[in-house]
Design goal:
With about 450 residues, this protein is of the alpha/beta class. It contains 10 helices and 19 strands. The protein has helices spanning about 20, 35-55, 65-75, 100-125, 165-175, 200-220, 235-245, 285-300, 330-335, 425-435; strands at about 10, 25, 130, 135-145, 150-155, 185-190, 220-230, 250-255, 270-275, 310-315, 345, 355, 360, 370-375, 380-385, 390-395, 405-410, 415-420, 445-450.
Length: about 450
């Protein structure tokens, strides 16, 4: 039986009413509420009214903010199987202040990680992820001492490709012991298929997302220090996954692979190491690596704060670089992900995503190969796109001051101007359910149309 929660309703009285009067709540008591509510609700009301009472001395949080946080705490104390839908709760849409949103983000994130621990402990123990009929086994090793803010995670993709399963199995065995770390968790997954594009098929994104979530929840990995690397066919995957899943990575390292049709433009916020043997002429890997080096240098020259890269071509080496390519690991380790960069270049691939950092697109969009560029300066967000369509701009106090008016523009055209929408628990929770990463959850959004 689902637990029944109270309704918290706020209403505003005339402007000449006192601050204390402007916070008015109507509660319907039900004897079937969980006992925790008998304590939580009086505390919530007291906190909200106390804040209002000192409104003349300092800028108060939105009316009801403390009540919403207290109600959220009580809601999360209910067994997950017994909770009613969060979006049906009045507290989920009460406007919150900046501090309230941070408290809500922390509580929702802790609850989400606890849910993952409950539901996925068995798959971590079995070392196998499943997606429909597909399975992705993985092996991992831990190096060094865990930092106070969590482990680094290095996902290392094996070579092989369109060949017999036993060949790919052997490549996986090689990858397990190919590199060592100073600090972190080194995980080598086994691709679910034996195809030429085994590391950039559509299911890979979903499985790697789940792998990252599991290691954060069950092995205390830091969301902002997740790295991807790969050799040969694994390098093919890195070429594609680094820009495709850019908001997951702190940095990426490609060894001896081929990019196929992928563009480097989406690497704006992903430091990218590229290494290949100078004699590795199969599929023109060596010459294409040099072309990418030139492209990345040109992109960085035009955008000096982005496109960090490290390229090395080993003149006397073929496809095997005698592990000299391991220099990419300490180079990557210097970099930490920024989940809210001031500039985004979102270049969609044939496998598409609905969110990248603080940008999104509607579920109905068909964005293959579309490029969206967004930047923040002061209180203004500027957008550009090579195709028309709607763009969701997720807003956050880490980017701009949501207590002040904001402007969203495309060129000289103003698409939105005015106060930001209210910060709400519901907005945070919706994105957190989708991505699990609290730093990629945002308290409000504006949808605009680009022509």
């Amino acid at each position: 039986m689902t637990a029944e929660l109270p309704t918290i309703e706020t209403r505003s009285l005339p402007d000449n009413a006192s601050m204390r009067q402007q916070s008015s709540f109507r509660l319907t008591i039900n004897r079937n509420w969980p006992a925790v509510w008998l304590v939580a609700l009086p505390l919530a009301l007291s906190a909200a009214w106390s804040q209002a009472a000192v409104g003349e001395e300092r800028s108060p949080a939105p009316v009801g903010s403390s009540a919403a946080i207290t109600a959220l705490r009580a809601y999360l104390a209910i067994d997950a199987a017994e909770r009613p839908a969060l979006e049906q709760q009045a507290f989920a849409t009460i406007p919150l202040g900046r501090d309230g949103i941070e408290q809500a983000r922390q509580r929702l994130s802790a609850d989400r990680l606890a849910q993952i621990r409950r539901e996925r402990a068995a798959e971590m123990q079995s070392r196998t992820l499943s997606l429909g009929k597909l399975q992705m086994p993985f092996a991992y090793r831990t190096f060094g001492k865990r930092p106070a803010d969590g482990w680094s995670l290095y996902i290392s993709l094996h070579g092989g490709g369109g060949t017999a399963a036993r060949v790919n199995d052997q490549q996986w065995e090689n990858q397990k012991r190919l590199y060592a770390l100073e600090e972190g968790i080194y995980v080598a997954p086994r691709a679910p298929t034996n195809t030429w594009n085994l590391w950039h098929e559509p299911h890979i994104d979903t499985l790697l997302d789940r792998l990252i979530e599991n290691f954060v929840a069950l092995e205390a990995v830091n969301w902002n220090r997740v790295y991807v690397m790969g050799y040969s066919a694994g390098g093919d995957g890195v070429y594609q996954l680094a820009p495709r899943m850019a908001d997951r990575w702190a940095a990426a390292a490609m060894m001896a692979g081929h990019p196929n049709e992928t563009s480097p433009r989406g690497l704006r916020n992903v430091p990218f190491a590229l290494q290949v043997g100078g004699r590795d002429a199969a599929y023109n890997r060596n010459t294409i690596a040099q072309q990418w080096s030139e492209k990345l240098s040109a992109l960085q020259k035009a955008d000096p704060e982005g496109y960090a890269h490290f390229v090395k071509v080993y003149p006397g080496k073929g496809h095997w670089m005698d592990r000299e390519d391991a220099v990419a690991i300490p180079w990557m380790a210097q970099h930490t992900r920024d989940p809210v960069p001031k500039r985004i270049v979102w270049k969609q691939d044939d496998v598409t995503h609905r969110q990248l950092y603080w940008l999104g697109i509607p579920d109905t969009a068909e964005p293959a190969r579309r490029e969206i560029i967004a930047s923040v300066a002061g209180q203004t967000i500027t957008l550009a796109s090579d195709e028309p369509g709607d763009v969701i701009v997720y807003l956050d106090d880490r980017l701009l001051d949501l207590d002040q008016p904001i402007t969203i523009q495309a060129g000289d055209k103003v698409l939105f101007a005015g106060p930001a929408p209210p910060r709400t628990i519901q907005s945070l929770a919706t994105l957190l359910e989708r991505r699990s990463d609290p730093q990629l959850s945002f308290p409000c959004s504006v949808t605009v149309s680009l022509e």
